[in-house]
Amino acid sequence: MANPFLVLGGVAVGVVTAGIGVLQVPGWIDSANDSAATNDLAQISLSEEAANTQVGRYIPQANLISGEYGTPAVKTGVKIQQSSGVVSAVALNAAGDRWAAITVSKSGNVFVRTSDSTTVIKSTSKLSAAIANSAFSGLPTGVTLGGTITAPTITLS
């Protein structure tokens, strides 16, 4: 017969381990959601560069999704497929030679990237409603954010 103290010790270790695991799950979920949002920024970047190579300029988000641009439609060679639960917006400057993109993770974190850098800028805290430049540290000059986490807006001058 097993020693009752060993059995009790095993049960206690199992309960403590399960408790620690349950406390870690929300962090894992937020991390996975944030990864999906940053992955969407990477897809936008790759698609914009492919479009620039094919048609000579960066293109709007609707064209990134369709993979075509212009009349008659020219295939850009790449389409983006947005992650479930990630909301994004893409802005171009007037000349079409620069772009900026924003994605909102299910976790509430917001991410921004531009054609000027591979750096992804994360909001300084999780946002629950309105998005503003003040929620970010180090935004490039000319990028203006707005909207809400369900309908973000971004402009680039």
Short characterization:
With 157 residues, this protein is an alpha+beta fold. It has helices spanning 4-55, 61-66; strands at residues 68-69, 74-75, 87-92, 99-104, 110-114, 121-122, 143-147, 152-156.
From the alpha carbons, calculate the radius of gyration and give it in angstroms.
Answer: 22 Å
- Strand arrangement, largest sheet? 3-4-5-6
Shape: elongated
- Report the helical percentage: 25-40%
The computed structural class is: alpha+beta
**Termini separation (Å)?**
77 Å
Unreliable residue runs: none
Number of domains: 1
Helix count equals 2
SSE string: HHEEEEEEEE
Largest sheet: 4 strands, antiparallel
Mean pLDDT rating: 89
Total beta strands: 8
Strand content: 15-25%
Give a written overview of the molecule.
The chain has 157 residues and is an alpha+beta fold. The chain has one domain. It is built from 2 helices and 8 strands; from the N terminus they run H-H-E-E-E-E-E-E-E-E. It has helices at residues 4-55, 61-66; strands spanning 68-69, 74-75, 87-92, 99-104, 110-114, 121-122, 143-147, 152-156. A hairpin with a 4-residue loop joins strand 7 (143-147) and strand 8 (152-156). It is elongated.
Strands, helices and their partners?
Blueprint: H1 4-55, H2 61-66, E1 68-69, E2 74-75, E3 87-92, E4 99-104, E5 110-114, E6 121-122, E7 143-147, E8 152-156
Antiparallel strand pairs: 1-2, 3-4, 4-5, 5-6, 7-8
Features:
alpha+beta, 4-stranded antiparallel sheet, two-stranded antiparallel sheet, 2 helices, 8 strands, 37% helix, 21% strand
